């Protein structure tokens, strides 16, 4: 039997949460210090990626032809030599993990440990189950939205991987999925929303800022990629605001990317028409 969701239940998820702030709103010198910190963190991580995404989209729009006629690869070979290639792949993974670690460290220095932002003890049943559920909630409609955006010429053709058929390809793709997930959910959700709360921003405003940031650094894929990730950011950010748990978001994001990366790589090896 289908369960009917009441208006009250639906409204409770749409409305912003009203959590007790982790720390009193900053004032004066503390506010300036927080803005400087946020600016530096974003300039060395996803803020710069967002600016790069805007430039990539502009370049694609200036290229003659439809956006769908152009292609962008998410994971590419980084050297002709296999050993150098896998080493550079691993360096990229380490860099993303370091971005996430930077956010956690700065929060810890201000008195907020991993448990305070939802990375406490991992609970297999609720965290894993909810993570997979979120992956399905975002991934399946997201695929349909991508196909629609590409069909109407609002998105580039996204190729999940162009890495050669090496023995280390699948492990590398999974590591990329985990690193992407950890860095994005820690920095774009837990770190940014927490800092904006401390600056006195409302839950809705901080949620929107987080979602827009997520969308901008995906604009290299086209308008569809940008808007789709804004929607993902709204769902993920609100979930974190309501539950305070970050593990399900990490699991969901890693699952979505792993299915896309590894599934594409597997199909590419068995279906001739896949590029």
UniProtKB/TrEMBL annotation:
Top-level taxon of origin: Bacteria
Protein name: CAAX prenyl protease 2/Lysostaphin resistance protein A-like domain-containing protein
InterPro entries with a match to the protein in the record: Rce1/LyrA-like_dom (IPR003675)
Alphabetically ordered keywords of this record: Membrane, Transmembrane, Transmembrane helix
Presence of the UniProt keyword Transmembrane helix in the record: yes
Keyword DNA-binding: no
Domain CAAX prenyl protease 2/Lysostaphin resistance protein A-like as annotated: residue spans: 167-258
GO biological process: CAAX-box protein maturation
